[in-house]
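Homework help board

Subject: predicted structure for assignment chain

Our instructor gave us this sequence and asked us to write out the predicted structure in token form, then describe one feature. I got the tokens but I'm not sure how to describe them. Can anyone check?
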Amino acid sequence: MNNYKKILLATAFAVVSSSIAQAGTLTVINKVSDQGIHLCIRGEGSKAQAGKPNFQHFVKASAQKTYTVRKKHNRGGNTFEVLVAKGKDGHPEWELMGASCSNLVTDADHTIIVNSTLGKLSCQDVTAANPVSNR
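My token output:
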């Protein structure tokens, strides 16, 4: 019976470890000092409309937030993109004044900086060009 418990515990640990290994972090730094930003995180090349994302969040003005991005958030893909927009009353202007960062690897850690110049947003990936996988 003792061996059975050890095997069961080892199996449970392996399952938990494998689900953790397939996730990365996305740190978003909002350098827009007067307005919050909306984020749409979706699988790279997803046909979904920006207004109907898989994973949507809000970052306050001059704030920083970190999210865990898993393959389930982007339909099982290895890469994802982040669309960024300003908007009032919870209605982001994805097409008009938005920006995007793409080619982000799901199981790696990324940091992006969002800035605004003359009202137009920009998104810059400040992660190393080829991030090391967390696997």
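Reply (TA_rk): Your tokens look well-formed. For the description, you could write something like this. Helices lie at 2-21, 94-97. That's the kind of observation they're looking for.
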